[in-house]
Design brief:
Pathway: Cofactor biosynthesis; riboflavin biosynthesis; 5-amino-6-(D-ribitylamino)uracil from GTP: step 3/4. The chain is built from 18 helices and 18 strands. It has helices spanning about 25-50, 90-95, 120-125, 145-155, 170-180, 180-190, 220-230, 240-245, 295-305, 315-325, 335-345, 415-420, 470-475, 485-495, 500-510, 520-540, 540-550, 575-590, and strands at about 65-70, 75-80, 105, 130-135, 155-160, 195-200, 235-240, 260-265, 285-290, 305-310, 330-335, 350-355, 385-390, 395-400, 430-435, 455, 460-465, 555.
Length: about 600
């Protein structure tokens, strides 16, 4: 997720064509330019809105919507706060009210509803929207083109930037749409999360003194900006040297909201017994290491609640592919020069944020931000793309891309589009169906999908819960005779997104395990089963989706949750998948053992 300030988008301008022209052609050109200027301005606003949730919840696809009346006046706006919450289109239509009729909706990206949930498209159709302008088609192949076809089938005019609309203004607006969803686009194209390398250095290119002392190179203003970058990331990555020398906390420190995971890459596990990163009371830490490294220290870390992940070969590419499978979209690298060089050489760094402080420290042995890359001539240097310069306090922030954002045009037909042309190509033939994030092909199987359920309380009254995850997390503390536990239940229930509900529940369980109901481990499977049965009973399209998976093994593709998920190498218990298959058998009238 990128701050809009870092996008450096040029202001909307009207370009006038030169040379002689007839009065009629001049009027026509002016009208076209005026329309394009209006479309471009509203699309850029939609992209700006889409960035609105960054820093408050875990990174996810960014959607924004602007509703403009026939006169071009904005009537309503909205953005997707988090996965599992109301779509941007629904919020914008609600805000616009009756002004939505015959209006134009501007979307930075094609809607990507959870499978079977067409609330975004339905909201636009039912509101009487006449025209929809879309910044770019959905980057994920299984979602690309679906909403556009659905809108056009309902008689709405749909224009896609770069396809149906073209001009210099339109290209600039389209760039804003690419930038605000760069993490999703890069992740979809490269099979690794979008990675940003951040560092602060002196004017003479040093990240520390010869002694290793580095506090502080940049100003407090710059450090606050770094906290913002952390809050927009799924995780922050450092190497073992950084842990040994700096003992960082790597928190976002923004007073609430999303806290990124901390990741330490260490081949030898030569790490201190005590470190700020080993305190997981507020946020978790993962240590990635070489297989077999210091087994006794791995046990020490595990005793502190640290997750250790072993790799046959510890290198940035392998680690990033793992976190891609884990569902991460955006990562921030705050490592030293050795690991930074390895990450750049592996091709996993997409963007660089370099804070340059007006200081000179010198020192022959003072470290630089990037170690040895094997280059011997200046012609071999990596050139940044779309370079931006910004003064942050006394410092200069230089940012740019190490590799271009993959363009989503020309449009590659999705599997569903191909199926319409060639029915012999079926969307999903695998006998194993993996699901994890809500934007995955079978994302509706996730506990985070936007499907409200109603479950009975102790008195038998049915209470609404925004998602299965809300209900599950709250049940950890239900019935505990402690005001803190009772407040926690209410906080989870009122959480705006499943992500926030999960964060509250997991955090409280780590901090105050004494507040978790004593029988929780023995009843949690039954709690999950009841919530899933409710979800797949009250939504016909979800029930049909589950039944359509008959004959397939369902696997929750979490590589780290070895209880509910399938694990990294299939070693997980996959209880979520097993419960869904049990439900499927019950709905089909089969014996539970047949799944």
């Amino acid at each position: 997720m990128l701050p809009m300030a870092a996008l450096s988008l040029p202001p909307v301008r009207v370009y006038c064509s030169g040379g002689a022209a007839t009065p009629n052609s001049s009027i026509s050109n002016n009208n076209l330019l005026g329309n394009h200027a209006l479309d471009a301005a509203h699309i850029r606003r939609a992209a700006e809105l889409a960035d609105g949730s960054a820093g408050f919840t875990s990174p996810h696809p960014n959607f924004g919507c602007v509703i403009a009346s026939k006169s071009g006046k904005v009537a309503g706006e909205g953005f997707l706060y988090a996965q599992g919450t109301k779509p941007a289109e629904v919020l914008a239509v609600d805000a616009a009210g009756d002004f939505s009729r015959r209006a134009t909706a501007y979307l930075n990206m094609e809607p990507g509803d959870c499978h079977g949930d067409h609330s975004a498209v339905s909201a636009l159709v039912q509101a009487g929207i006449e025209r929809v302008v879309i910044g770019l088609r959905h980057p994920l192949q299984h979602l690309r083109g679906n909403a556009i076809r659905a809108l056009r089938s309902q008689g709405l005019q749909v224009d896609v930037l770069g396809e149906d609309l073209n001009s210099k203004l339109i290209e600039e607006a389209r760039k804003s749409c690419l930038l605000v969803n760069a993490p999703l686009i890069c992740r979809a194209a490269s099979r690794v999360p979008f990675s940003v390398l951040k560092y602060a250095m002196t004017l003479d290119g040093k990240i520390a003194a010869s002694s290793g002392h580095a506090a502080w190179i940049s100003s407090k203003t710059s450090r606050n900006r770094v906290f913002e970058l952390r809050g927009r990331s799924d995780a922050v990555i450092v190497g073992g040297n950084t842990v040994r020398k700096d003992n960082p906390r790597l928190t976002a420190r923004h007073g609430g909201g999303h806290m990124p995971m901390r990741i330490v890459m260490s081949q030898t596990l030569d790490l201190p017994e005590e470190a700020h990163l080993w305190d997981t009371s507020d946020v978790s830490t993962i240590v990635a290491t070489q297989r077999g490294a210091r087994r006794h220290f791995q046990k020490h870390l595990a005793s502190k609640g640290i997750e250790v992940v072993e790799f046959d070969i510890l290198n940035p590419r392998e680690v990033m592919e793992y976190f891609h499978d884990r569902g991460y979209l955006s990562l921030l690298w705050e490592c030293g020069g050795t690991l930074a060089a390895a990450a750049i050489s592996s091709g996993v760094i997409h963007k660089v944020f370099a804070f340059v402080a007006p200081k000179i420290i010198g020192g022959k042995n003072a470290p630089s931000p990037v170690g040895e890359l094997g280059m011997v001539e200046m012609t071999q240097a990596f050139d940044l793309i779309d370079v931006c310069y910004e003064q942050v306090g006394p410092d200069m922030l230089i940012s740019g891309f190490l590799q271009p954002i993959p363009d989503v045009t020309p449009v590659i037909p999705s599997v569903d589009e191909t199926f319409e042309i060639d029915p012999t190509v079926t969307p999903y033939e695998s006998r194993i169906i993996f699901f994890y994030k809500t934007w995955d092909p079978y994302g509706a199987f996730s506990n985070f999908s936007p499907h409200q359920i109603k479950m009975p309380d102790d008195s038998g009254d049915y209470e609404p819960w925004l998602s299965v995850e809300h209900y599950y997390q709250a049940q950890k503390f239900v019935g505990v005779d402690d005001p803190v536990a009772q407040d926690c239940v209410e906080n989870i229930k009122s959480a705006r997104s499943p992500e926030e509900a999960a964060r509250i529940g997991r955090s409280m369980q780590r901090k105050r395990p004494d507040l978790v109901r004593c029988e929780w481990e023995s009843v949690k499977i039954e709690v999950m089963y009841r919530a899933l049965k409710c979800k797949f009973s009250i939504y016909p399209h979800l029930n049909a989706m589950l039944l359509s998976s008959a004959g397939c093994v369902l696997v929750e593709a979490s590589p780290h949750d070895l209880f509910w998920g399938g694990g990294r190498d299939g070693e997980g218990l996959n209880y979520l998948g097993r419960l869904l298959m049990q439900l499927r058998s019950e709905f089909l009238g089969e014996s539970p053992t047949s799944s």
